[in-house]
Amino acid sequence: MLRKTGIVLAAILVVLSSLIVLRAGRETELPPAAPWDLVVSPPTGETAGEAAPYVGEENKPAAEIAVAGPHGQLVGAPYVTDVTANSALINWVFRGTAATGADEQGWRGLHSKVSGLRPGATYYYDVLRDGSGAGAGRFTTPPAGGSFTFMVYGDTRTREDVHRQVAGKAAERSPAFVVHTGDLVADGLNARLWPGFFVAGQDLFRKTVLFPIVGNHEKNSPLYLRLFPHPLTYYSFDWGDAHFTMMNSDVGTAAPTKEERERFWSEQLKWLEEDLRGASSARFRFVTLHHPPFTAIGKRQAGTKKLAADLAPIFQKHHVHAVFSGHDHNYQRHVVDGIQYIVTGGGGAPLYDLDSPIPGVTEKVAKVENFVLAKVNGAQCAMEAVALDGSTIESFVIHSKSPAKTASVAAAGK
Q1: Domains contained in the chain, CATH given
Q2: Under the phi-then-psi rule, with left for phi > 0, alpha for psi from -120 to 50, and beta for the rest, what region is 277?
Q3: Any long-range contacts for 129-138 (C-beta under 8 Å, 24+ apart)?
């Protein structure tokens, strides 16, 4: 049932199994909504399907969706993906025999798209609204310009207790969004492992936006797309004056035959060129892929040569500023043709030794759990590699006008 006057659609509930409350401004207690009502208070002149969030009283919701109560138990915390200046996808996972449509492992991923948002605004939501706060979260939409902070980490598989610690430490820094470099779980085909990812990362996920890519341990699993629905496993997005290109480097599981895998990679390289060409006006260009084109692990260096040969010339041609990867469970930074190649695979998987730094290329290595915090402010991006105990592994600055102009500062342990 829709209220009659001044009501426009601001959210599309893909699966009607819970209650979502979305509001702009500071977090406040909201009065209960009438069941099965969609309530929106847009500014004058909005049209159906393009509702703007409420901009009057701070304790009034931008939109309420009230449907039948939740079925099943919430796993971890809700998480937000696919955020643009005016839309977002709110996601959550239920498990238990009461989870409608649950698979054989007893859980189901649910999604609700919310539109009509404003750039640079913070929104609060609750997928349970049962008074517990367990289903509550917040996210911020990309600003039109200006400064912002984001976080990069990956390889959260295997040791969920360590992932929980890394995520908790990162949550203290309040990044606007998180880039995950892949290997979210140890086996993407094993449905029993996915709930643990959301439980371990819940302190971080409920406060930010998540932009993941697949790693080799996702194994091209359909479960990944059930939790992170995308038309393709590679994509790009803009945040402020920066452009982010998210690749799928796990060619080995992308298709069943060699010919299909080669076509997959060829098509993606063509897309990469077009994507970066279209981002030529962006102040910063960042690329993320799971497998690093350069590594300080000796036994893996031969396997990176083709990747580096395919990608490095494209990155140089289109003036990419930094490339983020995982796969190697440690921290590394290499500089090739002025481009920063940063490996941050310390999100929980067992750590790897670093035995073969590349002469003239490798700037820093550390066998430690870690994440990278990046603060974009105008023409500079200050990056800090942070260890599990909160200490700084190193910090450095990237300048937007010339990727080759970088200055390493406060590089702990160098």
Answers
A1: 11-140 (no CATH), 148-409 (3.60.21.10)
A2: alpha
A3: 129/19, 129/20, 129/21, 130/70, 134/74, 134/77, 135/18, 135/70, 135/74, 135/77, 135/78, 135/92, 136/206, 137/77, 137/78, 137/79, 137/80, 137/90, 137/205, 137/206, 137/207, 138/27, 138/206, 138/207
Taking a C-beta distance cutoff of 8 angstroms, is the pair 150, 179 a contact?
yes
pLDDT of residue 73: 84
Q: Which residue has the tokens 């590349």?
A: 358
Chain mean position to CA 384: 18
The chain-wide mean pLDDT, for the chain, equals 81
Q: How many alpha carbons lie under 13 Å from residue 236 in its C-beta half-sphere?
A: 19
Which of 234, 201, 138, 199 has its CA nearest to residue 371? 201
**Lowest model confidence (mean pLDDT) among 71-80, 273-282, 312-321, 364-373:** 71-80
Residue 97 burial class via C-beta count within 10 angstroms: exposed 0-12, middle 13-18, buried 19 and up: exposed
**Mean pLDDT value across residues 173-182:** 97
Contact 184, 156 (CB under 8 A): yes
Distance from C-alpha of 320 to C-alpha of 339, rounded to nearest angstrom: 7
Lowest-pLDDT choice from 110-124, 148-162, 215-229: 110-124
Pairing of strands 107-115, 11-13: antiparallel
> Residue 112's pLDDT is what?
85
Q: State the pTM of this model.
A: 0.83
Cα of first residue to Cα of last residue in the chain, in angstroms, is 64
Q: Distances in Å between the alpha carbon of 167 and those of 44, 253, 265? A: 41, 28, 32
Burial of 131 (0-12, 13-18, 19+ CB in 10 A): exposed
Q: What's the average model confidence in pLDDT over 350-367?
A: 97
